[in-house]
Structures are given as C-alpha cells and as structure tokens.
Amino acid sequence: xxxxxxxxxxxxxxxxxxxxxxxxxxxxxxxxxxxxxxxxxxxxxxxxxxxxxxxxxxxxxxxxxxxxxxxxxxxxxxxxxxxxxxxxxxxxxxxxxxxxxx
Length: 102
Known about the structure:
Layout: H1 3-39, E1 43-45, E2 50-52, H2 57-61, H3 68-77, H4 84-90
Antiparallel strand pairs: 1-2
Helix pairs in contact: 3-4
C-alpha cells in the first residue's frame, strides 16, 4: 500500500482518538457532576466546578419567615423537606362552592 495512505490513516485515527478522549474527559469531569448537583437541588459553579448548597437568608440572619406559604415555598425552592406541620398550615382554605343559580 502507498505509504502516504498509511500515514494519513494513522493521523486520522490519532485525531479521532484525541477527540474521543477529550469528549470523555468533558462528560465525566464537567457534565456528570453538574447533572448530579442540579438533581440534588444545589447550585453548580461552572467556573470552579463546585457544587454549592443553597442557604436561606433567614438561616443566616435569624429572621423568621412569618407567612407559612412563603416558608413552604422557600424550603421547596432549595430542596429541603417541608415539615408536616407547615404543610397543614400553608394549605389554602377549601374553596366555597358557587351559589346555585335559580
């Protein structure tokens, strides 16, 4: 076989392998950790490849969230479990049936 064809074959095979290794490093080094972090309702920092835990401002300042619906919404937004006592308190009152038309 022509030596030029053999050399080109090896060059293309080498380029193909380098691209595949690069894609594997990207997938396992960046994409999978990001997906796992976002599935856990945490924050992904792409610049440092770090997974951060969201914190409620009320946890830092010590202020209490007075509105039960707002507290439930805040806890659900950061992926924390909502205590049953709050679920009952935050449940909207049952709707009154519309008056029947005569």
